[in-house]
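Reminder: ligand-aware prediction takes two inputs, not one.
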Amino acid sequence: MRISRKLLIVAAALACGSQAVAQEAGSLDALLQQDVRLATIAERMMGANQALCRQQMPLTGMIMHSLDQYTQGGQDAAFANGPIAVSAVIPGSPAAAVLQPRDGIAAIGSTPTSDMKADGKSPVRDAVFAALADQPPQGPVQLKIVRDGQERPVSVEARPGCRVLVEIKVADGLNGRSDGRVIQVNYGLATVATDEELAVVFAHELAHVVLEHRRRLKDAGVDKGFFGEFGRNQQLNRQVEVEADRMAVHLLANAGYDPRIAPKFWRSSLGQRTSGGLTRSRVYPSAEARAALIEREIADYIGSGAGPTYPGHLLARRDQPFE
Ligand SMILES: [Zn+2]
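Here is what comes back for the chain with zinc ion:
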């Protein structure tokens, strides 16, 4: 799950025969472009739904990366100010007002990033992200950056949002996934999805985070994977997918999207391939069944077709054991 980009580039090229995707995404600019697109949609949704999330963090519009995420060369310029750097900023965000791509990040709050370490397969970027997410959600976030070789303090305004690391994964399957701490959307899906379609995919993954599915499945002793397709495991894994689909339309509506883009997406050719591609397994309802279920949720709870909406009926399940 938490695999660095360099490993993903290799894995994608070897496992899927996706040399083209690996090479195209291996071009840093192409990858960063999709990172910014996804982060723009993600921060909009994480901010608008912060009241629904029990774990929060400051949203600044800053996207970070670390040198140890890459194997291929050609990133020297991106890391000229240090091995942990701003990769991009969301246009119009607080970060865009004071930070630039290639700024090195020397400290988050009072902790030097040189004290932060990579952990197993997780790049040092993940440790830096955790330090950022631990800052007060209301902001401002205090950083020490390096620009043109000079260290300087910077204060970045922030607003509270749901706490989760969001990233493009270098792989070509039509997939998104979340493990409660990280949401990944495959490069191959991001490049063919419109912004609205990407928002639908992201909303589903964020819904898993909001509903704390990872923890709840763990508490219930459920595995994903092969054994997840059978018996009680199958039933509970399917239950969380249904919950996530229902929650996703509330997250979309609160962020100003028309929630009807969700059933429209799951019925589209891309949506059907994304839904089927997730596992081909019995864990997921069919695309049509998903779309119909989502339409019922909208009709029952978001009659006007617009937010704000407070899905208390779904949030209450966080503190109830699975049946
Ligand atoms: Zn899901």
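The chain has two domains: 5-162, 193-319. Residues 204, 208, 241, 244 surround zinc ion (CB under 6 Å). We will return to this case in the review session.
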